[in-house]
Amino acid sequence: MMKICLILVLLFPLIANGLQTCEQCISSGNHYCADTKLCNSPVCLNTITVALNCPHAPNATYDDHEARTKWLPLFGAGATNEKMAQKCFDNNWPTMKLSKRILVNCSDPSPILPTTQCAMITAVDTTQRILVLSFRATVGGTQMGEEILNYFVGKKQFFDVGMIFEFFYDAYVALWNGGLSTEIRNLKYKYPDYEVWVTGHSLGAALASVGASWIVKTGLFNPNNVKVFTAGQPRTGDYNYALWHQNTFAYSFRVVHHHDIVPHVPFQYEVVDHDKMYHHRTEVWYNNDMSEGSPYQICPEADGLYCVNQQLDLSWNDHTHYFNTDLNVYGDQGCPKKN
Ligand SMILES: *[C@@H]1O[C@H](CO)[C@@H](O)[C@H](O)[C@H]1NC(C)=O
Ligand SMILES: *[C@@H]1O[C@H](CO)[C@@H](O)[C@H](O)[C@H]1NC(C)=O
Question: Per-residue pLDDT for 218 more than 50?
């Protein structure tokens, strides 16, 4: 009896410690083990050190069919002119109607770089009661080059939430002041209880993350009515921004194609200022060509050594192709319907 008691007393701290949730474990200054699901596991392959990465299933269901038939045409519509944007809807989602296209100068005032433009569209489906904000990707290599240069320029405070990259912040504000603010207030007035679908690819993905966060922080929309769906998103903000985003949006998917380079930039551990940048949940990783029927992984960590972060050989071609579609031309072709 005595012996058993002694053993229990000796073991108790270990057991109690081990049974903590990941969040409890990390907030008490320890490391959580994703493999053993124990706090301070002596042997561990995948150690989690930040609460952002505590493994969780997403609160919403990912739907590959909806991604191909709805979100993909929305990427296309956001990336082209008015006429072709409406064609993207007519071909794939006939009840969706273009509301407005906004095109602004979005470069920072750097004297050595050419002016670049940012674009987006809004659209309304009065049958399915959905509003859309779709942001355009980078056009050609120049803008991506400028983005990468701007990564080192700085970050800006995003409301009381955290820091985001200055380039994304300024580009979003240019669109907001260039017509989005008025447009979204009009849409909200006309369709107050519609869902808002916010989306984009590449630079457009970062702007979608910022835009969804913006319309929630300004009190225009309730996050429960907002869906965020991005493809090939670069890291957009810091730890606090990522944590706030994933604690706020029940529906937020970040799709990554195979070895797409862009979700890896800027690198998480910057040499220059050591500010760690993080992705928010939920990454959906297609480790294949994304053709119809391809498998995918719903990644349980936001930005850990998991899914795409385990990849070292990175590809630009994978960045421009999502759902087996060349996004450089898809929108301008009016988003031809897939079989
Ligand atoms: C956008 O930039 C171009 C080239 O620098 C300039 O000519 C044009 O006036 C700018 N447009 C606006 C709306 O500022
Ligand atoms: C997701 O679900 C968990 C568990 O039910 C809940 O605690 C959390 O608040 C939800 N997150 C969002 C953003 O709705």
Answer: yes
